Amino acid sequence: MDTLQIQIKELEGKMNRLYQLVERIGERVETLSENKSPVPNAYSLSSFDQYQSQKNSEGKDAAYSLSHHKDILVDETSSNINSISGSERELSPEIQIRRLTAQLTAAYNRIAALEEQLLTYRIKS
């Protein structure tokens, strides 16, 4: 493997760990919000749950809804998940690294927003 492929694999691993971290933080916020009144927020868990349930009720695949999350960048040329994997093979390693870095940055921003929301709930308690 050359260094670019190694960097891509490392970034993919970091992305997976970040998404797991975001899920855990989301669960903590949800646990805290069960006893509190909901706070209107662009990152409100209830609005995200409504969005997810709406997508699932429309018969969308779970992978489809995950790939169209606001923090995940999708190629403009790809119309479904199968073409995403094919289009990534056509992209140069530098572009893949840029895309993964952008996704990583978006995930960090999402984590920061969830942490702020968690702190807000803790301060109110």
TrEMBL record:
Biased composition (Polar residues): 34-56
Keyword terms, alphabetized: Coiled coil
Superkingdom field: Bacteria
Keyword Coiled coil listed: yes
Coiled-coil region(s): 1-28
Region (Disordered): 32-62
Protein name (Swiss-Prot/TrEMBL): Uncharacterized protein
Organism: Hyella patelloides LEGE 07179
